[in-house]
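The instructor's notes for this session suggest beginning with a concrete chain rather than abstract definitions. Hand out the sequence below and ask the class to guess, before any prediction is shown, which regions might be ordered.
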Amino acid sequence: MSRPPRRRISPPCLAAALRVAAIALGLGITLGGAFACEAGAPGWRDDAGHCVTWRQLEDRCGIPPSTHCTPDNPDPASETLVATPKGDPSAPPCRGCGCKGGPGYRGPNGRCVGWKELARVCGAVLPGACKAEQVDGRAETIEAQENFIASKPKRR
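After discussion, reveal the predicted structure:
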């Protein structure tokens, strides 16, 4: 028994056929040839063309996200984010949490809490499990933002 000869499809033809099939299935192809960012994502692509998660948004794109990323059906909430302040560890020695630019809360373990850990360590409502010391006025806004980001589904 002999088999019929196999036909090879050229890469450009195969890519075109896949795009047509994906469009027919409603998967939404972007110009880069990649699929649209998944539902629940902030809807931004980094310089390499990868979809950015909520947890990566500020680090990869900046605030506002259009600083370093391109939109891919962006979530309106991604435009309202506030840049997370950065403390200054090179500042001269001082006493109390918040004196070098942190949020100003001491965690249950006795150490000062950083901006990114504020909602996770202190809880949903400040001061929660933390002790207020030299509180920065932006702490509640940043905590609410971190709670919002934590509520988003993690990438599968």
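Then share the key points. The longest strand covers residues 44-45. Residues 82-156 form one domain.
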